[in-house]
Structure formats: structure tokens, C-alpha cells
């Protein structure tokens, strides 16, 4: 199988590409390697991928339509697209709102246009997010719930990407699957996310900022479980994952990929402290308006359609993340 993985230098794209390559697949990676967080981490991930003969890398920006469409001429054999490249993070939009439009809104259209041109593509998978559930209070979050209350521009662009994919599925029958990831963490993780930020501050003896009195709850999902979910969806194929609905609607579906456990942030922090053998100095701040109070995934749809079954509680996942963090930073 030949796959295009966008965001291959990113956290999830790197892990997914690594497993695909070790299975013997051919992977074309696409990423701008931008400076939203330390590009040295992205380059280090790419060097690991470059060790595999089946890996080809294209450095490019999603907003550069011609560069994206040129992939169709260079790699006409691609059969599956896993579109993970995006401007992530819910708070950065205060600094750079345009990055979300360029990467997440424009990027989705670029990739769907590419999918139309790649005649052998049978399945377009793309990253959505638990953030689309926004201010919903019914728990756990189910794919059938309304998603009309985004708390951040990030969430709005992710919901927009889902609707864009639905329209392409209707217009051009591009079989598409949106995967709503729930707070992913683990080795090679993102420096802008809680686990990494807390570990770094604690090891450097700086205070950590905790929003909402540590009472915010998140469905923290370990990276290997997310990769297993994406692979399950790829292997199930569009006839399962992106099949038309009962009314004969377009071949487009969304799935929650979460751990199916909602954990209070203070417990997550306690596990990080325990793994580092050091207590955090905590500064409390009110919850930012872009952050939701709680996330919790109903995963029954992914379980039924492609056997998704996460196996890593945070008690196991956090020590694994900290072990990697120590080796990466030499602490
Ligand atoms: N990690 C999570 O907890 C989480 C949760 C929900 C959804 N997601 C989504 O999953 C996907 C992967 O997330 P991640 O955690 O690996 O993030 P990441 O930031 O590590 O990876 C995204 C990659 O996309 C690249 N990129 C950004 N803008 C680009 C552009 N305009 N053109 C080309 N490349 C560009 C970046 O350089 C980066 O390497 C994203 O779509 C993200 O929104 C992640």
C-alpha cells in the first residue's frame, strides 16, 4: 500500500508513519516543519523515518496549492491519504488566527483536491478533534451529538474540515473518514501540550500554571492506542469506515478515538510528579475561554466498526512519556 501522511514530522504523523513503514508500506510524508514548536524535535523524528527505505519526504506548505497538487504527478500510486498536518493548539489563535485558516481550512481543501486528482485513492482519512464538542455538557461525547458550540477557532476549523470533507464526499464521492482524537500524549510528544510543559517546568524548578483549580477533566489517550485506532480504520477500509449512511448519504463518517476515561487534571499532574520524583510548584489561573471543562469519548462506534480498544491507562502511559522526556533532554 502507498500512503500519503501529512504532518509526518509531527507527533502523531511520526508515530503512524513509523508503524506503517515497519509493516512494509510505502509512505510519502508531507510537512512544512514549521516553528510552532521546536523544529529540532520535528527534524529528529524525520531522521528516524528516513532510516526506512520506504519513506520519501516532501517539505511543503498546505497553503501552497500547486505544491500540494504536484504530489499527484510525482506519486500517482498513492491509494490512501492520512491528513494529519494542521495548526494545533486551542490557545495559539490569540497570537496567530491566520495559521488556523491557512493550515486547517485551506489545507483540508488542498488535500481533498489532491485526493480527487489521485485516481487510485480509495480512502481519505483526516484528523479532527474532541474540541468540536466544545461546550457540550452531555457525557460521554458521542458522534451523534450536536457540535455547534466551538470554544476556540481551532475547534471551529476542525468542525469546518469535517463539513468540507462531507461536501466533497457528496459532490465527488471521495470516501472520507474524520478521526476525532482526544488529548494524545506519549513519547516524542508535543512541547506545547500539558504533559511536556509540566515535565519541563518541574525539572527546571519553575512553577506550572494549572487552569481551573486542576479540576478540568480530559480523556487522555496514549499515542500507541491512537496509532492502533488509525491503523484499524485504514485496514477496515472505506467500505466499513466511510460507507454511506442508512439514508444513502455521502461516504463520510466521523469517529471518536479516545481512551474512554475522563481523568481529573490533578491526577495527571500527580503521575508526572511521581515519575519525575519531584513535586510541582503550582500556580492556579482561571480556565481560559478557549479551553473546555471536560472531554470524555464514547468509543462504541470505532469499537464496533474497526475493533478500537485502547489499552493504556495514564498510570502506564505517563511513566513511558517521562522515560522518553528524560532521554530527550538528558535529565
Ligand atoms: N495531539 C493531540 O492531542 C490532538 C488532539 C486532537 C486532534 N489532533 C490533530 O491531530 C493532528 C496531528 O496532531 P499532532 O499532535 O501530531 O500535532 P503536531 O503539531 O505535532 O503535527 C502537525 C504537523 O503539521 C505540520 N504543519 C502545520 N501546518 C502546516 C502547513 N500549513 N503545511 C504543512 N505542514 C504543516 C507541522 O509542522 C507539524 O509537524 C492535527 O491535525 C491535530 O489538530 C491532535
Main traits of this protein?
single chain; alpha/beta; Rossmann fold; binds nicotinamide-adenine-dinucleotide
Write a brief structural summary:
The protein is an alpha/beta fold and 331 residues long.
User: What is the CATH homology-level superfamily?
Assistant: NAD(P)-binding Rossmann-like Domain
| Unique ligands | nicotinamide-adenine-dinucleotide
Low-confidence stretches: none
Q: Which fold name fills CATH's third level, the topology?
A: Rossmann fold
Number of strands: 13
Q: Indicate the mean pLDDT.
A: 96
Q: What class do helices, strands and sheet pairing give? A: alpha/beta
Word description of this protein:
With 331 residues, the chain is an alpha/beta fold. The protein has one domain (2-182, 222-260, 297-310): Rossmann fold (3-Layer(aba) Sandwich), CATH 3.40.50.720. 41% of the residues lie in helices and 17% in strands. The chain has twelve helices and 13 strands. The strands form four sheets. It has a seven-stranded parallel sheet, sandwiched between helices. Strands 7-10 form a two-stranded parallel ribbon. Strand 2 (26-31), helix 2 (39-50) and strand 3 (55-59) form a beta-alpha-beta unit. Helix 1 (11-22) crosses helix 8 (223-236) and helix 5 (97-117) runs parallel beside helix 6. The longest helix is centred in the first third of the chain and has 21 residues, at 97-117. The chain is globular, with a radius of gyration of 19 Å. The structure holds nicotinamide-adenine-dinucleotide.
Amino acid at each position: 500500500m502507498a500512503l500519503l501522511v501529512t504532518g509526518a514530522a509531527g507527533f502523531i504523523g511520526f508515530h503512524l508513519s513509523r508503524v506503517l513503514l515497519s509493516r512494509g508500506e510505502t509512505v510519502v510524508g508531507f510537512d512544512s516543519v514549521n516553528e510552532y514548536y521546536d523544529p529540532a524535535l520535528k527534524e529528529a523524528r524525520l531522521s528516524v523515518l528516513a532510516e526506512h527505505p520506504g519513506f520519501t519526504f516532501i517539505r511543503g506548505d498546505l497553503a501552497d496549492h500547486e505544491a500540494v497538487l504536484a504530489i499527484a504527478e510525482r506519486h500517482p500510486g498513492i491509494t490512501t491519504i492520512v491528513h494529519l498536518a494542521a495548526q494545533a493548539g486551542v490557545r495559539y489563535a490569540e497570537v496567530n488566527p491566520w495559521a488556523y485558516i491557512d493550515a486547517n481550512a485551506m489545507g483540508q481543501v488542498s488535500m481533498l483536491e489532491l485526493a480527487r486528482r489521485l485516481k487510485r485513492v480509495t480512502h481519505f482519512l483526516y484528523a479532527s478533534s474532541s474540541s468540536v464538542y466544545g461546550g457540550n455538557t452531555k457525557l460521554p461525547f458521542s458522534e451523534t451529538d450536536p457540535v455547534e458550540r466551538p470554544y476556540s477557532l481551532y475547534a471551529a476549523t476542525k468542525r469546518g474540515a469535517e463539513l468540507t470533507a462531507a461536501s466533497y464526499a457528496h459532490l465527488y464521492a471521495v470516501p472520507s473518514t474524520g478521526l476525532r482524537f482526544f488529548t494524545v500524549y506519549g513519547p516524542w510528544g508535543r512541547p506545547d501540550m500539558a504533559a511536556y510543559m509540566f515535565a519541563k517546568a518541574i525539572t527546571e524548578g519553575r512553577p506550572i500554571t494549572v487552569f481551573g483549580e486542576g479540576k478540568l477533566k480530559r480523556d487522555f489517550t496514549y499515542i500507541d492506542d491512537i496509532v492502533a485506532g488509525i491503523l484499524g480504520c485504514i485496514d477496515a477500509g472505506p467500505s466499513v469506515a466511510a460507507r454511506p449512511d442508512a439514508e444513502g448519504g455521502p461516504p463520510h463518517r466521523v469517529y471518536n478515538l479516545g481512551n474512554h476515561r475522563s481523568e481529573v487534571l490533578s491526577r495527571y499532574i500527580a503521575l508526572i510528579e511521581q515519575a519525575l520524583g519531584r513535586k510541582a510548584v503550582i500556580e492556579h489561573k482561571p480556565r481560559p475561554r478557549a479551553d473546555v471543562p471536560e472531554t470524555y469519548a464514547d468509543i462504541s462506534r470505532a469499537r464496533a466498526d474497526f475493533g478500537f480498544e485502547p489499552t493504556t491507562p495514564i498510570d502506564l502511559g505517563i511513566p513511558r512519556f517521562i522515560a522518553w522526556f528524560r532521554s530527550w533532554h538528558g535529565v
